[in-house]
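Ticket #4471: structure export looks truncated?
Reporter: QA, pipeline team
Priority: medium

Steps to reproduce: submit the single chain below to the structure queue and open the exported record.
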Amino acid sequence: MDKFEEKGPALSNPGDSWKIILRANYFRLVPRPEQVWYRYWVDLAPDKTVKRKRRRIFTLLLNHDRFAAERACMATDYGNIIISAKKLVLGDGDRAVVEIVYVDSDQGSPAPNATRYKAKIQMTGDLAVTNLLQYLSSPAPDAFYEGKEEMIQALNIVMARHVNANPDVVPIAGNNFFPLLGGANQHDLRGGLIALRGYYTSVRTSTLRIILNVNVCTAAFLQPGPLLDLLRRYRQQSTPEMPMWAVEGFVKKLRIETNIFSKVSTPACSLQPRLISPTDLDTASNSKTPGRQS
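Actual output as written to the record:
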């Protein structure tokens, strides 16, 4: 609830009335009672703990030719769990091993030496929506539903499926989502940082119903654009005589995209990082020669 809105005359005389509008931060979920969700656990070999790459591996897994018929019914938390509205065709014991050739989202095809992962998929159970609904509507004070936590987890994964697949939305730490809309949802913090306004979603149970909570959240991000511009903004906002090791620390482990303007195909090259001096920043900004931008 964020506001009471008054309608009509003030309550100065007996019989006067107010109309109160109640605004809530949730939506009611009405799943089909006959729906059954199938839950699967995925182990990767070799195990990849870097979140960005693990997320990409799960995207490749869901888009694998083996799941072409069920793809539209599948959702994942990009960690270990897959939820499907249809039972997947795996193998004996409802398990299978799927080989994935890693290719990044900005690559046209896998590299010759691309890493190959094996995804071991095992069905861990099914979750019937009717069991949850019967539990929520039970008049018994000691009513218990053993699969409640797993069902809530599955609903959270399903509700986040669409936004997780949207390239214009940045997902952070579970169910926090930040649309890259600009405008009122973005604020310049200066020094190479911007604040984005997003939202947080969470499925919860209430009396006789299931609700989806939606709350506003904010987070700070590095300002997108050329790397040299980012470094310049950071130095200008900070002490003018800032030592360069401090600038290096600001972008350490930062992932950048390189664009090489060339009509001739060249073999892959290794970029060696080096410390950039203030003179380099000024020289690069004034250069008109096409080349690599980060």
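Status: closed, not a bug. The export was complete when the record was re-opened. Leaving a note from the reviewer for reference: The two ends are 45 Å apart (CA to CA).
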